[in-house]
Amino acid sequence: MHNVPYLTHMAGTGLHVIIELTLLRSTLPVHTACAYPEHVRRICETRPSTFFTLKLKMTQDLKALVHFPKEYFEGLQAICRHGYEDYLGQREKDVKDAFESFVFCGETDSTLRVLAVGASDGILDIPIIDTLDSKYRSVLYTVVEPVESQVHEFSALVKSKRERGLWMSTNFDFQLTTIEEFLSKTKTRKELGGFDIIHLQHSAYHLPESVIVELYGQLNKGGMLFTMLVVGAWENNYLRISNIIPDSMLLKFAGSSTLRDTLYRRIPDVKIQTKYRKMRFKADECFKEESKDGNLIVNFLVQLHDFRKTAPPEVVNNYMKYLRECCEELNGELYIPADDEDIVVIKQ
Ligand SMILES: C[S@@+](CC[C@H](N)C(=O)[O-])C[C@H]1O[C@@H](n2cnc3c(N)ncnc32)[C@H](O)[C@@H]1O
């Protein structure tokens, strides 16, 4: 119950807010009001009534997209098909720079141990592996990914690289499991050598704070934690969806600034470096109700399965209005800003 006065204070003292808080107290567990507390505070400041009214209308029919791997990856592919662009060509360079500048503190001849969390088909890992494989004599690259089709694609990628004589200094260890499960089986891993690099490219959304802290604990001294997550408009979009979906289905991290806040709070004296990138993708399809790709993209943006069919019509309408407001128009086409950010933390 102690969260209610906090939110009341932060949300201002408009009469409608007080009334809605009363409703909220009687119908929902109070902890639902404190997802991403700092960010909810900001939403409350700008739109005092929206947070509470929409939450009250949530329905049991909503299902988290992450539990539907086929649709989840179809959504991602649809976004890529509709011009998901790193339009300043920065991403590969930023990633290579970060991994190139990493200083390995292990013995000269020892193996560099890397953990890739939620790596999917490995496409985003290519610049990382290229950089490390050319720099070190021996790399052990452990991939933890819970979706079988993605692990198969990553293994096929490795095979095709090897057939061309590439990635020969790197040994791959594919773990078809969640990171939570992996960590629970490897509690003593630290004694076996820990990791020198742990990276999470667009996967920390799905992981609880405790896992991020535990991963940091698995790093050797001088080791690097590298994350890439959305920031800006897309992160705000994920914060916004916390208004309409039950907490049990919420992403654990809405984006990079949410993760940054957690790192500052949970890791004493942590030093964080960041790299911000402009990104975008085309949004026209999202506004065509019958468009298959449009619906896949919208589902991904709200992280819900079959959003248009399962959410109450007023929630869908409100969200689509909000999404339209987020769009930027360029040469007659609509774009959704999809900026992202890298975070680098070196373990002291
Ligand atoms: C948005 S995708 C990013 C994939 C890839 N890194 C990329 O950027 O293209 C998120 C990934 O996290 C994975 N994932 C979700 N929950 C996970 C968990 N508990 N442990 C490890 N990976 C997880 C998903 O299967 C998916 O591959």
> Between the first and last Cα atoms, what is the distance in angstroms?
38 Å
Secondary-structure arrangement, i.e. CATH architecture of the largest domain: 3-Layer(aba) Sandwich
**In CATH's first tier, which class of the largest domain applies?**
Alpha Beta
Poorly predicted regions:
1-40, 48-58
Domain count: the total is 2
Question: So what's the overall shape?
Answer: globular
Query: What is the helix tally?
Result: 16
Beta-strand proportion: 15-25%
Helix proportion = 40-55%
What profile does the largest beta sheet have? 7 strands, mixed
CATH homologous superfamily identity of the largest domain: Vaccinia Virus protein VP39
Unique bound compounds: S-adenosylmethionine
Radius of gyration: 21 Å
Strand order of the largest sheet: 3-2-1-4-5-10-6
Rounded mean pLDDT score: 84
Short recap of the structure:
A seven-stranded mixed sheet has the order 3-2-1-4-5-10-6, with helices on both faces. It contains 16 helices and ten strands. The chain has helices at residues 3-10, 15-27, 37-46, 50-56, 69-81, 91-101, 126-135, 148-163, 179-185, 189-192, 209-217, 233-241, 256-266, 292-302, 307-310, 313-326, and strands at residues 112-117, 139-144, 170-175, 195-201, 219-230, 272-277, 280-282, 328-330, 333-337, 340-346.
